[in-house]
Every structure is written in structure tokens, then in C-alpha cells.
Write a structure and sequence with these properties.
This protein is mostly helical. 75% of the residues lie in helices and 0% in strands. Helix 4 packs antiparallel against helix 5.
Length: 479
């Protein structure tokens, strides 16, 4: 019988690729959509979150994620498996909790695929009609454009998707860099102030909401391990890409938030952003940059959405691939394209399902932005919950197998510290879920039942497989 440290059988389907450190980094960083965070999230965090103290929250969120990543990467050394959270939770806490968590993460990534289509349709429609003075068409027409591009890229070799997202991300980072340098060079509205980093402002406004949103801006690093079979030299590539992602995100988000506040003036920033979050950001781009910079940012928000969709689709397809390879889903879904080495069948299923859900939204005439907010709220809560469970599973597995020796800090201390941080964020998410979804308390409660119902369904399904299909049960978690 194979052990967890044994290689997978040769007959097991295996993906192929040639991603290097930069290719993997760009694939993951693109999922974080830095320009979407700068334009669409940071102003909201200042308005309803921690006010002037918002930059510090990105540092705190980054430290939580870095602590988790240390144990996460240690686990990847010991347990050389594709499957990431799904495989690690199974190894540490058992197949039942592992399958529930795997289905939950599949739901999280699928929600990103589904939710960003109407959002992309709206922003692309706005760009075409308002900026380019083109036709004013319904959002779902433009969403279909995004869907077609993502469906094609998801079918092809992952290296190709990485090249596309690299170009997109490079453009985003240039815009953010120019914006930051422009404010820095002119000294903000009234001279650069370190007040946002002062301890007296750390608990301004709602610290809880601010930390919740900040923690959600570091998603996607699971991809570094999930693409294990598709990268060159995983032992070096995966750690470099993971730590590079976290460090880059902390620097970009904390620095840009600090400069944005200074661009408005520390005395007026919170009130101006609260009154008009989008307008406040747009005005600083024009004032300290130019109208061209704002137009460029508007264009790149669309490409940023595309990058998020491509990455979420690729990750979701690989979750579906891994669980079908285990036999949880039909094995036909674990087909590997002979030329591209991609999970092309799982990719097509993801594309078809995303299109079907959005067709329901159109037919039922559901408000596109309300739908986007609700499913992204589901994705955020689900993802953070699974990370919390993973942070518990890792030290349990490493301690049980003796792989914690000589690595106690990486294997035990830091993962448990991350578990405490993620656990706090989960509780905040549950109590503040109506803010995330933009819905009523009743709608939020139904969505919470749905999210944790998926965990429960996976647990029950594993019990059923253990009784009636033990050969499949043994393989849960890429074992």
C-alpha cells in the first residue's frame, strides 16, 4: 500500500507544464488583481474599515499569511502532492474533513469564475460606451466576451495562460507604480505624513472589518502548490513564488494606501472617501497623474478582471481534475490533453457550468452587481475557512509523522499562529456577512447555510464512499 510520501502511480493522470518562478508568480499575483484592489477595495476599506489606520492592516494580514505560508511550504516539502489544501487537510485531519474542504475550495474558485463574469461585463460595457463611445449593450453581451477568452485559455497549456496574465499584470503594476511615484514626488496634498502608521490610528473606525477585507486581499497563493506538476524544479520555484507574492502584495497595498490617504490629506481623507469612494480615487489619479493615467487604469481594470477569471478558472479546473483523478467525480473528468498537458475536460465543464449559472442570472433578471457581491462574499468566507482548517491540519500531520523535528517553528508554531489569525477572520466574516454580500440578514443566513452545507455534504459523501466504494475512499486527498 502506498504511503503519503510515496509517489503517485504511473497510471495516475498527471498534468504537464514548464512554469518558472516568474511565470508562477505572475499567475498567482494576477489572481489578486492589484489594480482592482487599489481602485475598488482600498477606498472601501478606508470608508467602512479602519480609516487612517488601513495601511497597517495590510501588514498584519501579510504577517498572518506569511506565517501560514511557512507551514504550507514545509508541508509541500514533506507531502509532494498536487491538491494543495485538499491534500493537506486530508493528510492531517482525515478523508472526511478533507473531502468537505476540497469541495468547499472548488466552490470558492467556481464562485470567482461565476461572479467576475457579470462584473467584467459591467466594467467592459462602461469602457466601451463611456470611454470609447461605442454601443451601449447589456452586461451579459460583454460578459460573454470574457467567457469565451477564459474558456479558450483554460483549455490550452497553462504556460500560455501564464504569459497572458504576465502581460496584464505588468500593465497594472506600471499604472500603480506611476500613481505612487507621482504622489510621492509631489508630497501629497499637504506633505507626506506618517500618521497612518501611528499606533494612535491603528484602531480607527472598524478594525474588524478592515482586517477582514485586508486578509481577503492575499488569496491565490495556493496555486503555487496546486501547479506542482506544471512547474520546473518545484523545490525552488514554489517557495520563491509564494514569498515573492506575499512580499509584493504587502508593499504594494500598504504603500499605495498610505500615499492615497496623503493625496487626499490626512485630515480629510476619511470623510472624502466615505462620501465618494470611487470619485476620491479617480480625483487623485487625475490630480497627481493625468487624465491619461485614469483612462489607462480604466482599461487595465478590465484586463485585471480577465486575469482573475483565467486564474480562478485554471485553479477550479485543477480541483475538479484532482478529485476526479481520485474517483470522487467521474474519472472521465481527469483527462489530460495529449498536446497541451492541460485538464481540458475539467476545464470545459467549468466553462459550461459558469455559463449556465450566468444564464440563470439573465433569465431571472437578477441584479448583476448584487449577484457579484453575494457570490464573491461566499468565495471569501469559504476560502478563509478552508485556510483556517489547513492551518490546523498541517502541524497535526507534521507532528504525527515526526517531520516537525528540527523545524518546530515552521511546522508547529507559525501554522498555529496563522490558525489563530484566520480563526478570528472567520468569526468576523460570519458576524459581518451581510456587509460582504450586500443582502439582507435572511439572504446572508441562507448563504451561510449553503457554504457550510457544502462542507457537510463532502463529509457525508466521504462516509458513503467509505461504506460502498472503499477503493475510491482510499484515494481521497490524492493518496
Amino acid at each position: 500500500m502506498r504511503t503519503l510520501s510515496d509517489p503517485l502511480d504511473d497510471k495516475d493522470p498527471k498534468l504537464k507544464g514548464n512554469l518558472g518562478t516568474l511565470g508562477l508568480f505572475f499567475s498567482v499575483m494576477a489572481f489578486n488583481a492589484p489594480l482592482v484592489v487599489v481602485i475598488g477595495v482600498i477606498p472601501i476599506m478606508i470608508a467602512i474599515g479602519n480609516g487612517l489606520g488601513t495601511p497597517v492592516l495590510f501588514i498584519i494580514g501579510g504577517l498572518i499569511v506569511a506565517a501560514f505560508a511557512t507551514g504550507f511550504l514545509r508541508m509541500s516539502e514533506v507531502l509532494a502532492r498536487p491538491g494543495a489544501f485538499y491534500a493537506y487537510i486530508t493528510a492531517g485531519l482525515g478523508k472526511k474533513i478533507g473531502l468537505g474542504s476540497g469541495l468547499a475550495m472548488l466552490l470558492a474558485y467556481f464562485c470567482c469564475c461565476v461572479g467576475y463574469l457579470p462584473f467584467g461585463g459591467i466594467v467592459l460595457g462602461s469602457l466601451v460606451s463611456n470611454t470609447l463611445h461605442g454601443p451601449d449593450l447589456p452586461w451579459y453581451v460583454w460578459a460573454l466576451v470574457f467567457w469565451l477568452i477564459v474558456a479558450v485559455l483554460g483549455y490550452l497549456r497553462v504556460d500560455f495562460s501564464a504569459k497572458v496574465t504576465a502581460v496584464v499584470l505588468f500593465g497594472e503594476l506600471i499604472v500603480v507604480f506611476i500613481y505612487d511615484v507621482a504622489i510621492l514626488a509631489r508630497g501629497g496634498a499637504e506633505g507626506l505624513s506618517a500618521a497612518p502608521f501611528s499606533p494612535s490610528n491603528w484602531f480607527d473606525g472598524s478594525f474588524a472589518i478592515g482586517l477582514l477585507l485586508a486578509a481577503g486581499m492575499f488569496g491565490g497563493y495556493e496555486v503555487t502548490v496546486l501547479f506542482r506538476d506544471e512547474v520546473r524544479n518545484p523545490a525552488k520555484t514554489i517557495p520563491r513564488a509564494t514569498y515573492g507574492l506575499i512580499a509584493c502584495a504587502v508593499v504594494i497595498y500598504a504603500t499605495t494606501t498610505w500615499l492615497f490617504i496623503n493625496a487626499l490629506g490626512t485630515d480629510d481623507a476619511v470623510s472624502l472617501v466615505t462620501a465618494d469612494p470611487t470619485g476620491a480615487m479617480d480625483s487623485t489619479m487625475v490630480t497627481f497623474g493625468s487624465r491619461f493615467l485614469l483612462d489607462a487604469a480604466t482599461v487595465l481594470v478590465n484586463t485585471s478582471v480577465l486575469a482573475v477569471l483565467v486564474c480562478a478558472h485554471n485553479v477550479g479546473a485543477r480541483y475538479l481534475f484532482n478529485m476526479s483523478a481520485d474517483g470522487v467525480f467521474p474519472r472521465a473528468l481527469s483527462g489530460v490533453h495529449a498536446r497541451h498537458g492541460s485538464p481540458h475536460i475539467a476545464s470545459m465543464v467549468m466553462s459550461a457550468a459558469a455559463l449556465a449559472v450566468n444564464m440563470v442570472v439573465v433569465v431571472l433578471n437578477i441584479d448583476a452587481m448584487a449577484f457579484y457581491a453575494a457570490v464573491l462574499g461566499v468565495a471569501a468566507l469559504t476560502g478563509i475557512t478552508v485556510q483556517f482548517v489547513t492551518a490546523i491540519a498541517i502541524p497535526i500531520y507534521l507532528k504525527r509523522t515526526g517531520n516537525h523535528k528540527d523545524h518546530v517553528m515552521k511546522s508547529i508554531v507559525l501554522p498555529l499562529a496563522a490558525a489563530a489569525g484566520f480563526g478570528s477572520v472567520v468569526m468576523l466574516s460570519i458576524f459581518r456577512f451581510p456587509i460582504l454580500t450586500g443582502g439582507s440578514q435572511t439572504v446572508s443566513n441562507l448563504l451561510l447555510v449553503f457554504v457550510y452545507g457544502v462542507f457537510a455534504f463532502g463529509f457525508v459523501l466521504a462516509c458513503a464512499l467509505q461504506r460502498w466504494r472503499p477503493e475510491v475512499y482510499k484515494r481521497i486527498g490524492r493518496q
